[in-house]
């Protein structure tokens, strides 16, 4: 019995093929999850797209990518929420945090030890 030798080219070709298989599977997972999370489509439309992508994978995926709007109302809402959260987080300064900590200590919410520890953490940021 003669065993075929495995060459570097065989291993390389196997790695390339596996890479493209994983990428194809990942594309289908992402597209199907995009169909499921969209709020602007009815359940029947979502089911039709998923069946289309399962029955004819590459044609279905390509058709969905072409027909999907670039930006949906849901995308705009999510981007606006993300932008508002970023602006809110960026608007808080260290001085504001220290002022809040002093107020909490004055009201008796924080003990002196808790205040010093939180102050140290705030100044370390």
Q: What features would you describe in this structure?
A:
The longest helix has 30 residues, at 8-37. The chain is elongated, with a radius of gyration of 27 Å. 79% of the residues lie in helices and 0% in strands. It has helices spanning 8-37, 43-55, 57-67, 73-90, 94-107, 112-124. The protein has a domain at 1-71. By secondary structure, it is mainly alpha-helical.
Q: What structural class is derived from the secondary structure elements?
A: mainly alpha
Please, what is the average pLDDT? Answer: 89
In helices, the fraction of residues equals: over 70%
Low-confidence stretches: none
Total count of helical runs of at least 4 residues: 6
Distance between the termini: 68 Å
Report the order of strands and helices: HHHHHH
Major sheet: none
Strand tally:
0
Taking Cα atoms only, what radius of gyration do you get, to the nearest Å? 27 Å
Shape: elongated
Strand percentage: under 5%
What is this structure, in a nutshell?
This protein has helices at residues 8-37, 43-55, 57-67, 73-90, 94-107, 112-124.
Secondary structure elements and their pairing?
Blueprint: H1 8-37, H2 43-55, H3 57-67, H4 73-90, H5 94-107, H6 112-124
Features:
mainly alpha; 6 helices
